[in-house]
Specification:
alpha+beta, 3-stranded antiparallel β-sheet, 17 helices, 10 strands, globular
């Protein structure tokens, strides 16, 4: 019997553990039609094909987000940012950001991340019991992306709340009150960034420009983005640059607690860190559900899909597909090859993937070297979110 699954009716139990549902979908309804005419895809081959084929499947959401958001701040933001657009706009924005992800830039970032991690662990050692989400995993990427955009340290605290509300708007189900909070967060974030841009424009051009400085300079030469485009893409960078990486690191710590033999294996052989990082991404992908729209009539998984059909891409489901990953429910830090889809594929492959991998590697190496025996000091607390694999709280005792 085909699995009867309606994404818009998913509950908190699904958010806590979606993987049994994903398995049933892969087995009985890999192309699962939804009551609103959209389709949920759960098999690796189908999800990878759609993510890769930018000519056949669009990322533009100007039509699809309108019924949910209306002509609102959330609609303006999500339809202007890099991730929900097609070429040529997508190509132009990505090209402007490229110089900040070179090997040389990465080396500078790594030194900064290492210093930040060491400082966080020093504070944590004095407390002994910490919430690793808010006191470790979150400050690492938040400080790095704020450094990249030139956000002063004393002004960073509100960004965390704004990001959660704005990204929360992308979940399949949101109440009117939750959407209202998201709209307000966009307006507050925009106002803050416009003030920051104005302050930067009043100053002399720096010798070592950050990302925002460079975007402003391109704008003033007349060949860059508009101010509104700069603002929305900086919101996207700030949100995506820290929210998903925070989830990546927190989920990774949760996995090391759930699979102590694999943690011991990693401590005994640190050379496994690269494959361990990839397995964390596969097992608990920070982005669980992506979206595309079919440009033309096509066939997916043996079923006809009409042009204009909205597709929910089950990235978390695809990354547990036994057709691609042997024994997918086993957490194996030496798994290789591991062609997971956590960062997407094709032209929308996450531009910050190398940065996220570097941040996680530094964080785990230093955490395990200093506190190899850390233990759980509380439950893993997850909110009712399905698009993103989020942990709200995870307390650990660093010195059991």
């Amino acid at each position: 019997m085909a699995e009867q699954f309606v994404l818009a009716q998913a509950d908190h139990a699904f958010a806590l553990d979606p993987y049994p549902t994903y398995r049933r979908l892969r087995d009985t309804a890999p192309v699962c039609r939804q009551p609103d005419g959209s389709v949920f895809l759960s098999r690796y081959e189908d999800v990878r094909r759609v993510i890769t084929d930018a000519d056949g499947f669009s990322s533009d959401k100007k039509v699809d987000f309108l019924p949910k958001f209306g002509t609102s701040p959330l609609y303006e933001h999500h339809t202007t940012s890099l991730v929900f657009n097609d070429p040529p706009y997508h190509t132009r924005v990505r090209r402007m950001l490229g110089p900040f992800f070179t090997a040389q830039a990465m080396r500078r970032m790594e030194a900064s991340v290492a210093a930040n991690v060491d400082a966080l662990l020093g504070v944590a050692a004095e407390k002994r019991v910490i919430d690793v989400m808010s006191e470790f995993a979150l400050p690492i990427p938040l400080n790095l992306v704020c450094d990249l955009l030139g956000v002063p340290r004393e002004e960073r605290e509100p960004l965390r709340r704004w990001a959660a509300l704005i990204l929360g708007g992308l979940e399949p189900v949101r109440t009117p009150a939750e959407l209202a909070e998201g709209h307000a967060a966009v307006l507050e974030f925009k106002a803050y960034l416009k003030e920051l841009i104005a302050a930067k424009r009043r100053q002399r051009a720096p010798a070592d420009p950050d990302v925002l400085d460079a975007l402003i300079a391109d704008h003033e030469r007349g060949d860059g983005l508009t101010i509104d485009e700069i603002v929305h893409n900086c919101i996207f960078m700030l949100n995506a640059g820290h929210d998903t990486t925070t989830s990546f690191i927190t989920n990774g710590i949760d996995l090391l607690l759930r699979f102590p033999q694999q943690r011991a294996r990693l401590i005994a052989d640190p050379s496994l860190m690269r494959t361990a990082i990839e397995e964390m991404l596969r097992y608990e992908s920070p982005l669980q559900i992506g979206n595309r729209k079919a440009r033309n009539d096509c066939e997916i998984g043996g079923e006809k899909i009409a042009a204009g059909t909205f597709l929910h891409l089950g990235i978390g489901a695809a990354d547990h597909d036994e057709r691609q990953f042997p024994d997918p429910e086993s957490f194996d830090i030496a798994r290789d090859p591991n062609r997971h889809l956590a960062f997407g594929h094709g032209i929308h492959f996450c531009a910050g993937n190398a940065v996220a991998r570097m941040e996680a590697s530094v964080a785990f190496r230093r955490l395990l070297a200093r506190f190899p025996g850390f233990e759980r000091a509380g439950a893993t607390v997850r909110p009712p979110r399905w698009r993103f694999r989020v942990i709200d709280e995870l307390k650990v005792d660093l010195r059991p």
